[in-house]
């Protein structure tokens, strides 16, 4: 059916024929009619072939459809273009005239740009998509240029940009035009004249340069690439084309790849020379945009790296570096590209091998110039980059470049490029890594760039000094740099040393005072000293003055110490070379430093290390000894400070006079020109021994630094032995010096127990050699008494140490026994001191016997007994020896606490009987019918009670059960007891004798009263002392005694001084006269006790204060005024006067004052206190604190307590008229002896004259029966 219709149509005649068109179709016809005819003809063209004359006639008569003046609707033009496309599609070959007529109409269409798409479609059909432009060759390009510009203008209009749909339409249209143009260029561009081709290329370049649309730029670059590839680019367009390609070459946008392709094609074309000229002009003249210059750099880099890909446009690396130098410093991004290009070249081995000297210099010039953008730039300009990423990129590039430079440079290259290379390192140094700096340092050791034979050695050393030595953040690298400078000194000669000194080393010296790196400072001083010794380029006075500057103005202690070490080096140098004048100058400076308390302790100690080693032989010749104090320093228990000091030697790697120098040791040959005695020889100088002694004296009297005082104390004695050195300068008082030393040792036991414990054996040995000096007796024994109270110090004592202690005490007892009748009866103080020495000696025996371990005491008993017997040889044994013997028997096998408790029987049926045997009272009480017996043993050193019972007796079992059920816990004084102790309690304290027997006492009132009196005598030696707090600015007695508020310092002191007890409690504590019933003297008191002695403190701040009833505080003063010893805690801020609180019995005031004067009532905690003993009687010398001492707060309570106990004993002796010291145990012994005597007299009266010789012998004791060694049978 369809086929029949088609045949009918083809065979039928058209409604409008050719003749109708030619005769009836005119422009004057109505437009509607013409439009209808155009549409009908268009439709008929599908089935009917019109002649070209008819179609041309129609086209010429509808040209007014395209005129903007006619303002025909768009429908008219669309119908006309439809006719054109239909007609052209039916023609095999369009005539030139027809193509021209149609084209002119398309070209002349002046309607809206929105119809460009229809016109482009018509043109595409007319020219077969650009394949055939015959007749319109010179007209197509201008038309395309017009259309492209129009689209570009539309895309840049704001109303289009704001409408995505419109923008998309014009982008599509622009793309269509570019596609058409691409075909035109590929197939017909050769037929177009240059001026028209240039017009199109110029428009495309302009559009690409001005648009921001990536799609348009990409299409434009494709067109330009096609132009380059398939035909030719007008020569006049090449400069602008190159600029465009450069500006689009950089980045990572969609068109960048196409730009790189086009650039490569252009440089491979026959226009490469013009392109290269333009490229070089861009880099040289900087008359284009920054992005174009960056692109030019990238193109040059690409061309140089891929030289083989280009036949003609060859840019070798040497030329490239020269070209890049012209663009340097344009902007930071361009410079970044240039640095990247340099790195790319350095990575390419072939390129680096081809670099000539000028290229390398250019590279370093580029790299140095671009360091100004780095954040740590040393140029001072510190350009600010636009982004952190750019900074990071540049830093990363430099890191990579540095690695490449390390790998590339050979010794030959280094020799040629020394200056630019180190200039580069100088500029880039702040960002160098440790490994890279190490590589630079290796150039000095392997390539000897700092050797004087290197022509640039000074510049290289300046780099080493300025950048690595002083600007390195790595001390190890700085130390390596300084060591390199030290090593280079070994290669200096008379000519090069001047340049080295003035150009390199002088500035190093200027920095030395502020140098904080110890090792570097030491090396600098070594170089300084070496240059003086080897070349004499420095004056001796310069070195001395410089040393003083270092000591006084150094930034660190070690630098000051190095300055002192330099003085030592100068001393030994002049000492070795016998330069007497210089030696005197140095030695005077050393002595000035030693005595200057405002200088660092370490510097002064170094000077004293030299001064204390100076000796003189019998002829007075001065020399330095190196063995004298090694022994003393080894006792300090600490590392020698000298080990941490700079070595007193020359530079280890240097050569002096052709040989390696010997290392300086402390030992020196004798210097014959410096003597300690006067001489007439003009070449001899007198050693300033008097000045040296004056320094020592000032140190001992006024030194404020303990370390200096300690060092001098340890080492001065060895030097003082050398009498030849000081025999014309001083008078030596050895006894006074020994006493001071013993005081220092005693205080050191409290303050430095760890250090002093290692020296105790040697100390005891030396003290045992001094016991013949009576002046030292009190101080030696007080030292031993204090030492026994410090458990940590004696915990590691050996058998020899204990025997040393006991031996010292026994020697004094023996000496007293032999000389007690020689004392001046009228000199009370001397007699008091003598009695005090005896009391201290027995006190040493007692407390040290208790210090012994329980299982060790037995073996010392024979030693002590033998010593006591020697003291009593040819005389009767004194009471103190007897109680000492009893005390050893009491504690040899037991640690049981002693007491004087004996229960009183409550049962009337109790029978009691007492015997006396030797110095023991034995009482046995028996409860009738119970089988229970109480055995009470009373001895001078204590009372023990035992209860015996029969286990088989039911009543006894009941009593035992009751007794144990009521005992809820063991007593506080329970401790371990050897079985032998039980027997010891029943043994006569004078020993076992076959001829001795117990004597029964009469059971009468006199005996019972005597025993009752005995039981009331304490078994523990008891002392009392006042304890007074003096507040801020208090000097009046009433104000001081009325204090009921104290300070924190006083409270801390009390806590360690003793324990608190409640006065009303029945605790067996000695109250020292304090009220225990009515709280008259307060509720509490402080006390301290051990097994054999106790001390109660009359603390005024714990006693009630009632100023209304007792404004003078007489209730407090009745205790304080009757105390022999008072402890005064003085925080008044002024010196305490002995008579501030006067009292009849006050004899000793122990005044404690803070070292720092209080600033107010609430002063801060004090760490150190001044302790001074004030006595009523002048001439007392029983305490080290007669001369004030400074004690730490931690050691203060223990020292004061021990001093109080000793002062109480001395005061008691003095107030008793300097007679013997009656110990509480002696009083108990004498009570027993009285009962013993009464029993013997009663027995003799009973026996009468009928007494046999055997019986009489039984009543007497022989010397062998007394104080036998009980350990042999217990």
TrEMBL record:
Record has Plastid as a keyword: no
Gene3D superfamilies in the record: Rap/Ran-GAP
InterPro entries hit by this protein: Rap/Ran-GAP_sf, Rap/Ran_GAP_dom, Tuberin-type_domain, Tuberin/Ral-act_asu, Tuberin_N
Alphabetical UniProt keywords: GTPase activation
Record-given protein name: Tuberin
Domain Rap-GAP: 1011-1247
GO annotation, biological process: negative regulation of G1/S transition of mitotic cell cycle; negative regulation of TOR signaling; negative regulation of TORC1 signaling; positive regulation of autophagy; positive regulation of L-arginine import across plasma membrane; positive regulation of L-leucine import across plasma membrane; regulation of small GTPase mediated signal transduction
Record GO cellular component, one term: cytoplasm
Sample GO molecular function, one term: GTPase activator activity
Domain of life, source organism: Eukaryota
Keyword Iron-sulfur belongs to the record: no
């Amino acid at each position: 059916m369809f086929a029949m219709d088609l045949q009918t149509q083809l065979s039928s005649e058209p409604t409008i024929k050719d003749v109708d068109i030619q005769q009836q179709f005119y422009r004057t016809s109505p437009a509607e009619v013409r439009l209808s005819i155009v549409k009908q003809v268009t439709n008929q063209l599908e089935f009917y072939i019109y002649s070209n004359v008819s179609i041309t006639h129609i086209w010429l008569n509808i040209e007014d459809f395209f005129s903007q003046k006619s303002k025909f609707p768009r429908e008219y033009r669309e119908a006309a273009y439809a006719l054109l496309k239909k007609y052209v599609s039916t023609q095999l070959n369009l005539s030139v005239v027809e193509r021209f007529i149609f084209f002119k109409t398309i070209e002349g269409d002046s309607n809206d740009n929105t119809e460009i798409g229809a016109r482009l479609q018509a043109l595409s059909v007319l020219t077969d998509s650009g394949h055939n432009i015959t007749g319109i060759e010179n007209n197509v390009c201008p038309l395309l240029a017009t259309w492209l510009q129009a689209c570009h203008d539309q895309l840049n209009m704001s109303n289009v940009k704001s409408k995505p749909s419109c923008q998309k339409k014009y982008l599509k249209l622009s793309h269509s035009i570019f596609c058409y143009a691409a075909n035109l260029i590929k197939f017909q561009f050769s037929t177009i004249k240059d001026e028209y081709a240039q017009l199109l290329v110029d428009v495309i370049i302009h559009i690409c340069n001005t648009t921001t649309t990536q799609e348009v730029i990409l299409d434009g670059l494709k067109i330009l690439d096609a132009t380059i590839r398939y035909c030719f680019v007008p020569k006049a367009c090449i400069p602008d084309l190159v600029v465009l390609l450069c500006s689009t070459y950089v980045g990572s946008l969609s068109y960048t790849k196409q730009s790189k392709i086009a650039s490569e094609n252009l440089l491979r074309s026959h226009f490469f020379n013009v392109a290269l000229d333009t490229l070089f002009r861009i880099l040289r003249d900087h008359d284009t945009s920054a992005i174009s210059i960056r692109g030019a750099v990238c193109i040059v880099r690409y061309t140089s790296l891929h030289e083989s890909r280009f036949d003609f446009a060859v840019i070798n690396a040497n030329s490239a570096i020269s070209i890049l130098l012209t663009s340097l410093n344009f902007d930071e991004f361009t410079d970044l590209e240039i640095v990247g290009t340099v790195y790319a070249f350095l990575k390419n081995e072939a390129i680096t091998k081809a670099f000539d000297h000028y290229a390398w210099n250019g590279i370093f010039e580029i790299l140095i110039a671009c360091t100004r953008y780095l954040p740590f730039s040393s140029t001072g300009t510190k350009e600010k980059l636009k982004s952190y990423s750019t900074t990071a990129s540049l830093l990363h590039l430099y890191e990579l470049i540095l690695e490449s430079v390390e790998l590339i440079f050979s010794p030959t290259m280094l020799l040629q490029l020394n200056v630019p290379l180190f200039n580069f390192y100088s500029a880039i140094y702040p960002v160098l890594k440790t490994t890279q700096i190490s590589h630079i340092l290796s150039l000095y050791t392997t390539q000897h760039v700092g050797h004087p034979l290197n022509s640039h050695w000074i510049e290289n050393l300046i780099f080493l000094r300025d950048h690595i030595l002083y600007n390195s953040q790595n001390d190890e690298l700085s130390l390596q740099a300084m060591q390199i400078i030290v090593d280079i000194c070994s290669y200096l000669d008379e000519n090069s040393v001047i340049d080295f000194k003035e150009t390199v080393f002088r500035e190093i010296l200027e920095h030395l005072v502020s140098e904080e790196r110890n090792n570097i400072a030491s090396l600098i001083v070594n170089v300084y000293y070496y240059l003086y010794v080897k070349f004499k380029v420095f004056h001796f006075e310069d070195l001395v003055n410089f040393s003083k500057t270092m000591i006084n103005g150094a930034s660190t202690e070690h630098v000051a110490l190095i300055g002192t070490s330099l003085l030592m080096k100068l001393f030994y140098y002049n000492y070795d070379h016998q330069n007497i004048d210089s030696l005197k100058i140095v030695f005077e400076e050393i002595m000035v430093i030693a005595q200057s308390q405002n200088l660092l302790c370490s510097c002064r100690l170094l000077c004293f290390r030299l001064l204390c080693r100076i000796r003189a032989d019998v002829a007075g010749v001065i020399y330095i000894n190196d063995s004298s104090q090694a022994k003393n320093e080894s006792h300090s228990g600490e590392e020698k400070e000298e080990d941490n000091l700079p070595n007193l030697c020359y530079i280890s790697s240097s050569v002096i006079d052709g040989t390696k120098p010997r290392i300086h040791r402390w030992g020196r040959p004798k210097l014959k020109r410096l003597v300690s005695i006067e001489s007439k020889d003009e070449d001899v100088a007198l050693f300033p021994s008097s000045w040296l002694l004056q320094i020592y004296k000032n140190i001992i009297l006024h030194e404020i630094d303990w370390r200096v005082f300690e060092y001098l104390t340890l080492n001065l004695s060895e030097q003082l032995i050398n009498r030849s050195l000081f025999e014309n300068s001083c008078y030596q008082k050895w006894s006074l010096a020994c006493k001071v030393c013993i005081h220092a040792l005693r205080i050191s036991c409290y303050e430095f127990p760890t250090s002093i414990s290692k020296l105790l054996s040697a100390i005891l040995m030396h003290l045992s050699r001094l016991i013949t000096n009576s002046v030292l007796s009190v101080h030696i024994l007080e030292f031993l008494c204090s030492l026994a109270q410090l458990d940590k110090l004696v915990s590691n004592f050996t058998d020899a140490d204990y025997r040393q202690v006991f031996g010292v005490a026994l020697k004094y007892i023996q000496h007293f026994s032999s000389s007690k009748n020689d004392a001046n009866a009228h000199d009370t103080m001397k007699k008091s001191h003598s009695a005090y020495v005896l009391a201290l000696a027995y006190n040493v025996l007692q407390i040290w016997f208790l210090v012994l371990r329980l299982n060790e005491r037995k073996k010392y008993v024979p030693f002590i007994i033998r010593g006591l017997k020697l003291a009593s040889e040819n005389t009767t044994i004194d009471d103190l020896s007897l109680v000492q013997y009893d005390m050893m028997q009491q504690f040899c096998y037991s640690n049981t606490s002693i007491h004087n408790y004996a229960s009183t029987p409550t049962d009337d049926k109790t029978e009691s009987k007492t015997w006396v045997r030797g110095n023991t009272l034995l009482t046995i009480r028996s409860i009738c019918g119970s089988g229970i017996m109480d055995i009470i043993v009373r001895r001078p050193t204590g009372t023990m009670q035992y209860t015996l019972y029969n286990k088989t007796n039911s009543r006894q079992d009941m009593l035992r059960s009751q007794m144990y059920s009521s005992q809820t816990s063991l007593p506080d004084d329970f401790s371990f007891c050897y079985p032998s102790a039980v027997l010891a309690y029943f043994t006569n304290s004078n020993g076992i004798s076959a001829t001795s027997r117990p004597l029964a006492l009469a059971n009468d009132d006199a005996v019972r009263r005597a025993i009752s009196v005995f039981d009331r005598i304490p078994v523990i030696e008891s002392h009392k002392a006042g304890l007074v707090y003096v507040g801020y600015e208090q000097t009046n007695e009433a104000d001081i005694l009325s204090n009921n508020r104290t300070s924190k310092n006083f409270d801390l002191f009390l806590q360690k001084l003793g324990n608190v007890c409640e006065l009303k409690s029945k605790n067996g504590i000695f109250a020292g006269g304090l009220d225990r019933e009515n709280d008259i003297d307060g509720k509490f008191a402080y006390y301290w006790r051990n097994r054999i002695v106790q001390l109660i403190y009359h603390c005024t701040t714990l006693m009630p204060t009632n100023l209304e009833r007792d404004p003078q505080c007489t209730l407090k003063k009745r205790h304080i005024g009757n105390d022999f010893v008072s402890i005064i805690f003085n925080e008044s801020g002024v010196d305490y006067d002995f008579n501030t609180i006067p009292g009849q019995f006050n004899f000793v005031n122990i005044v404690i004052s803070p070292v720092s004067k209080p600033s107010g009532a609430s002063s801060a905690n004090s760490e150190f206190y001044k302790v001074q003993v004030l006595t009523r009687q002048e001439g007392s010398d029983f305490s080290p604190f007669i001369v004030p001492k400074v004690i730490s707060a931690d050691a203060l309570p223990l020292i004061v307590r021990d001093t109080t106990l000793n002062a109480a004993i001395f005061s008691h002796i003095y107030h008793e008229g300097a007679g013997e010291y009656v110990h509480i145990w002696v009083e108990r012994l004498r009570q027993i002896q009285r009962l013993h005597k009464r029993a013997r007299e009663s027995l003799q009266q009973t026996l009468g004259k009928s007494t046999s010789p055997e019986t009489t012998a039984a009543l007497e004791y022989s010397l062998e029966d007394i104080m036998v060694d009980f350990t042999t049978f217990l």
